[in-house]
Amino acid sequence: MSRSLVRLSFLAALTLLGLAGAGLARAAVEDLDALAGAQFVPSAAPALLGPVDPRGRNAWDCAPEAAAAAQRAKTARLPEADGP
User: Fold this and answer.
1) Residue 33: domain span
2) Tens digit of pLDDT for each residue in 1-30?
3) Number of domains in the chain
4) Is 71 exposed, middle or buried (0-12, 13-18, 19+ CB in 10 A)?
């Protein structure tokens, strides 16, 4: 095999690999643009929980939040310790 044929084959293979890589990169960029656009769609609030304000969740009787909001530990209705 002559050197010119080897060089021509190598250059042809390198060109085809470059074109294939450019095609894959272009497809990946288009997919990333689609994902980035879909990522920032606003979501709805969950139906299970009520809105939250500085005093806690509205219309939600939550013992941990009530205990955290208590002014004194005695009025927080904390669970009793099991051990000594």
Assistant:
1) 3-39+52-75
2) 688 899 999 999 999 999 998 888 887 777
3) 1
4) exposed
